[in-house]
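Note to self: keep these together.
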Amino acid sequence: MLEIKNLCFSAFDGTEQKDILKNISLTVKDGTFLVLTGPNGGGKTTLAKAVSGIVMPTSGNIFWNGQDITALSITDRAKLGISYGFQHPPRFTGMKVGNLLSLAAGKELTRLECCQYLNKVGLCAADYVDRDVDTSLSGGEVKRIEIASILAKGGGLMIFDEPEAGIDLWSFAKLTETFKELHESCDATIIIISHQERIIALADEIAIISGGNVQKRGTRDEIFPDLLGDGGSLGCAYMRKGQ
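Structure:
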């Protein structure tokens, strides 16, 4: 279980200190599929990075399965089964896609296993296993490879920051199918930052983050009663701002 208690984060923007997260408290039960949404600049990504250890909170605490991980590094959190997918993933010149997946899995994967992970994110696997994760790949390709690496790693908590960014419609459809299957087939807690209706439609719970606070939280039907599972209309001010 993930427990966030009174979490605050402030940063200096060059002229003044600004509060990004303002006393956020949030509990996410094991196996929950939670989508964080809301207007851009509301604190969603900062909250996700604080949970994964990329940024250190100004105050407050983060507990994972009862252990206070607030002061742990991103590496130590990864060892506890916490994974994070960047909105704009890094590139690794000289690193083959297959090697990256094996590194993420913590063991040598067969070519078939690598291909299976790549197929799940909509990539024609045979064309990518032996390629370098460098500038020869598009942003959308690198994004999908990173998601495949998180799937290969497994773990109890998987966090994805706008996984749909830079991905074509066919691959996006494949990706939403993968998230649905992942949620149904494993006990992992999944947290996704997204404005996309088809991803929000998969969620057990939705939290609207705005102004550094959790403005609203509940089931999909409670938060967006007009949301259609096939990508229908939201008619929601929060989502229009987020777009």
